[in-house]
Design goal:
Layout: H1 2-19, H2 31-44, H3 46-64, H4 69-77, H5 85-92, H6 97-111, H7 124-139
Length: 147
Amino acid sequence: MKKIIITFSLFIASFTFAQETAPPPPSMPTVENKIVIDNLIKTAGFEKYIYSYCLEKIEQAAKENNWNEKKTQEIIKSIHFNQFKDTIYNTFSLYSKEDLISLVKLFEKLNHNKKNINLIPISDTIQHNLEGFATDLIKGDYLFLNK
């Protein structure tokens, strides 16, 4: 009986401790790489793409749900690129500085003098998180940023 109680106690204790460990934080780039990623964001036109994507999703939701103009504009005003930037940092955090510089040069070359067409390096992670970001915007989760 004593063995059963001790075993059960150890099981409960180990289960409790296992539940207290948090998942690891998202990967973030070094300070140097963050500067290069910021340059990639600017060169590739990430901010414009994110805004355009969210705007399109918001306008679609506004039509489907018969929103008035005031609500639509409030939701549109809650699009803040800085709320999405960490996804981009996380995605490119594992690249070396040299690889990031190569990407910046590539996208400078590809997007040079292209007014309406920009190529953007989008990963599955970025697209998945962008869809979630747009959904959260539509639900009004970022309206607090308008204050």
